Amino acid sequence: MLLPTTLILLASLVQAATLTLKNSRFNITSKDATELRAEPLSVTEKLSSPLKLDRTDILRLTFQVVEKDNGNNVQPHQAFLRFYDETTDEEGIQPVRVSNTGKGKFELNMAKPPTSLPPTGSAPLRVSLLIGSFVHSPLKVELFDLHVPASHPPAQHTEEASYHPLPPLGHTFRPEQKLPPRIISASFTGLALAPWLVPLVLWGKVAPSTPRLFSPHILPFVTTLALFEGLLFWYWIDLRLGQVLLYGGILALPTVFAGKHALASIGERRLGLARK
């Protein structure tokens, strides 16, 4: 029973161990490697004066992770730098590689800023170091405030205008069609039917010398002609052109046969009258 109890106590002591930083400092250099500023960093207090970087400056950060109690070097499982903008609530997380000796190094080159850096304006970024370990308590260190050049506005996408809200569509309906007076409608109806007067007049003049209209040889042909007239009237009030062509093509076959039969019967009748 002594061995398991000892292991549990050792595990609890390791779990309770805390981390800290040693030899943490930063330096800022210009494009020509001129050192502009260099100071050590504290674990307990954030740097009082904020840092400022121009578009060609380079910020370098170095530190070493150790156990607070005995100063042993620790390689954490995760280490991140957090850049946070309080005004826009935007943040960026940049991983930091830490060696097995606990030494970590980070470089921020403003000529080529990382994509993890959040969009920036006039407000400074709060920079903090986050360290996590499976066998130690996590560590968060507020490092400093950082002023960086404002971000350029993103380039407008070629199809951005297609996703903007459009004004609502409005449609004005035309007023209902007004019907003409009945006298005018009746007059134009009579005008449309007037051409029928011509065949009726002609029929009255030639009827005595021709077969009767209701003869079984003539009636089918006259019926098919009447159906054609009815088809045209139906097209006028309801049908489409394709339907008229279809029905007219079907009706044309009996019309042709009925017309041939009617002409043949008229020819035979006239031939019989000529022989007499």
UniProtKB/TrEMBL annotation:
Which InterPro entries would you find in this protein's record?
Ribophorin_II_3rd, Ribophorin_II_C, Swp1
- The portions of this protein that span the membrane are 183-206, 218-237, 243-266
Ordered alphabetically, the record's keywords are: Endoplasmic reticulum, Membrane, Signal, Transmembrane, Transmembrane helix
Q: Which Pfam families match?
A: Ribophorin_II_3rd, Ribophorin_II_C
Highest rank taxon of the organism? Eukaryota
Question: Which pathway features in its UniProt record?
Answer: Protein modification; protein glycosylation
Q: Ribophorin II C-terminal domain: from which residue to which, for each copy? A: 173-270
Annotated localization? Endoplasmic reticulum membrane
> Do the record's keywords include Membrane?
yes
Where primarily located? endoplasmic reticulum
Signal peptide range: 1-16
Is the Ubl conjugation keyword given for this protein? no
**In what way does this protein cross or attach to the membrane?**
Multi-pass membrane protein
Domain Ribophorin II third: from-to ranges: 27-146
| Known function | Subunit of the oligosaccharyl transferase (OST) complex that catalyzes the initial transfer of a defined glycan (Glc(3)Man(9)GlcNAc(2) in eukaryotes) from the lipid carrier dolichol-pyrophosphate to an asparagine residue within an Asn-X-Ser/Thr consensus motif in nascent polypeptide chains, the first step in protein N-glycosylation. N-glycosylation occurs cotranslationally and the complex associates with the Sec61 complex at the channel-forming translocon complex that mediates protein translocation across the endoplasmic reticulum (ER). All subunits are required for a maximal enzyme activity.
The UniProt entry's sequence similarity note says:
Belongs to the SWP1 family.
PANTHER family recorded for this chain?
DOLICHYL-DIPHOSPHOOLIGOSACCHARIDE--PROTEIN GLYCOSYLTRANSFERASE SUBUNIT 2, RIBOPHORIN II
The protein's name in its UniProt record: Ribophorin II
Organism, as annotated: Hohenbuehelia grisea
